[in-house]
Amino acid sequence: MWRNWSGCESSEAAVVAPRTIEQLREVLAAPDKVLRPVGAGHSFTPLVSGGGRILDLSQINTPTVLTSAPGRARVSANARLHDLSAALQAKGQGFRNLGDINVQTLAGAMSTATHGTGRDLPSIAAEMTGARLLSGSGELVEIAAEDLPGVQVGLGLLGILLEIELNTVPAFNLRRRVGVRPFEVLLEQMHGNWSAHRCFEFFLLPHSGKGVQISHDVTEAAPSKPPLDLDALGLQVMKVASALRHLHPKAQRGVLALMLKLQGEEDYVGESWRVLSSTRAMRFNEMEYHLPPDVAEPVLRDIIALIERRHPDVWFPIEVRQTAGDTAWLSPFQHGRRVSVAVHMHGGQDYTGFFHDCEAIFRSAGGRPHWGKLHSLQRRDLEDLYPDLGKFDALRARLDPKDRFLSPALARMFRP
What we know:
single chain, alpha+beta, eight-stranded antiparallel β-sheet, globular
């Protein structure tokens, strides 16, 4: 049985792993089975499950980097981000920006509009300048410029991405600074910090009154010794502190206060891709909505109040980032910057009630969901949020006329 990374999605569909494009065509030629491609399985939504077969593309032997020139590279769509980052670094190039996690495939990250943080830095999908895919009819298609905004964020509905051309930048080093700040300081200074730093984000720690801010700025300094990775240890302490709340509410706050007192200021320089992204050891489930920047502060105050009032068992940090706008038809960042607010619950906890209440707050503020993270949107919701949905429908009808990639869950959103 296939399961996603967090375990919230599963499927008993057969997993097929073609080794060549011809074998992939043979899989496509088999009738009456909906096919869903799988990458790292890091999406929490049913993007892989629900079909008749799951396509594992990891066995197709394609060089990680096919061609490269200053500012541009053509790469294997199904290479993992950490492998691509290392291969580009070896050529003196790099991604402009990356998200928190480095194990996804490039195709998966782009297809779901995965993003990092930075007021003037777009999502990874916006860096796509060209692509080759195998359509639902088994044709190799080089994507035309006018169709690119549909393919940049395509959710695996348009075909099997094989090669992607993308913007790159000269390899660079980043200085990361990490520090603990009170809630009020983080909220009051967030927009100023996004203007002051290349990358800025913060994590609000429920029941502590504080959070952790992280900034990244370009530096000519040489890489320094990497600090100890205390993220996993910190999450374990927060989990234990939450359990202690059942003995006495003050116990949780006391443990969190001690943990944050021991958290020192971090100052570290490294190659950009090593500083920006890592793996995640602790399993969790996540909902993330992208909001107009001017509503971020009231939404964050509402979420914190919601945890204190109705969901005291929530202890996972709330992550807050900002991403520049782009032009992809299904991008949640289309036509303007958005502040992204991500709520999480530990993999062993029931997240349904908390996420349901959070989603009501996000939706009332005009939020658009991350495609790979939990949400409940249906077709009528997408029609209100995505003005170019009709263009995407027309492109999907042309590239996948027999709905080979349209699972029942996706049909509820993408069948006109």
